[in-house]
Amino acid sequence: MKIAVYGAGGIGGYFGGQLASAGADVHLIARGSHLAAIQEDGLHIESIHGDFHVNLPATDDPAEIGECDYVLVCVKSFDTEAIIEKLGPLLGSETAVISLQNGVDNERKLAAEIGEEHVMGGLAYIFSTISEPGHVQHADGPARIIFGEIDGTRSNRAERLRRLCKRADGMEGVHSADIWIDLWEKFMFICAQAGSTAAIRLPIDEIRDVDESWKLFCGLLEEARDVAVAEGVEVTDTALEEWIKFAKNLDEGTYSSLYHDMVNGNRMELEALHGTLVRKADEHDISVPWTRSVYAVLYPWAVRNAPDQ
Questions:
Q1: Phi and psi at residue 289, in whole multiples of 5°?
Q2: Helix locations, the chain, DSSP H
Q3: Which residues form the Ketopantoate reductase C-terminal domain (predicted)?
Q4: Residue that is last in its domain, among 155, 177, 199
Q5: Rounded to whole angstroms, how far apart are CA atoms 155 and 233?
Q6: CA of 161: how far to CAs of 1, 72, 122, 127, in Å?
Q7: Are residues 143 and 17 part of one domain?
């Protein structure tokens, strides 16, 4: 089974390494000093499930890899359009391209350009990052990927990937019965946790200790749920309650990648998160005052951190 991982950062590097350890022929697509370090000394994974090292072929040119069975797209959501035009050499007639990115629009963007038959929906639950070039650190989280066909059918290619994931010691693969529900449920939480920690600039424990701030977090969750339902995705109140319970138990000092990108001057995924939610709410004439306020607060930071500024 041949797999290309487009974006071998914290998520792509970890899962790529795990799938290689399970026997897959994994090829990494990376850039800069991280790519150079992998080419020189392989990929080092430091994980709560146990550290390991793998020597994998790595490049910045998909044409050097050729056709694959699966392509895992792990770049930031704002890079989706930029990498779509480079996917061609990786695609055979049966290739499945699976987005493991934040947001709920990446699948549609991919399908519009490479064909819906190539695209599966996916998401990842893991806290991992590049600790230094060539090194990925997995600090927490279940190390789980969820994937499924975007038309809701069960497929052999999804089941094959699930069986491969099962052979890996440090990850779980779940064949989703309804990938849009899974995508929107994760999207709800990201919008709430990322939006509140970035806008308030404090960790989640300090937010949940203040009633007015906790109302913001819960309001963001509820608004995302309302938009999901308007989109035809049956997200239930139970999912909302489970996320609230989850947030109440998050470790002290927990921020979000959106917060870290903001304060470190990195490009932000604001448009893929709160920008998308505001636009979809407008399409359905739904009031989302919490989300709109967070978007307004964070937008100047997104402009400041944009690469052309």
A1: -65, -35
A2: 10-21, 32-41, 80-84, 106-114, 156-166, 179-200, 204-208, 211-230, 237-248, 257-263, 276-283, 289-305
A3: 179-298
A4: 177
A5: 21
A6: 9, 11, 12, 22
A7: yes
Beta-carbon count within 10 A of 3 CB = 24
CA proximity to 98, closest of 195, 207, 4? 4
Same structural domain for residues 35 and 132? yes
Residues facing residue 52 across a β-bridge:
45
Q: Rounded CA gap, 207 and 201, in Å?
A: 9
Does residue 187 share a domain with residue 208?
yes
3-state secondary structure of 114: helix
Q: Which residues constitute the domain of residue 195?
A: 181-305
- Cβ–Cβ under 8 Å, residues 298 and 198: yes
pLDDT at 308 over 80: no
- 264 plus 206 within the same structural domain: yes
Distance between CA atoms of residues 128 and 139, nearest Å: 6
Number of domains forming the structure of the chain: 2
- Final residue of a domain: which of 133, 157, 177? 177
Name the β-bridge partners of 3: 26, 70
Q: Are 142 and 256 found together in one domain?
A: no
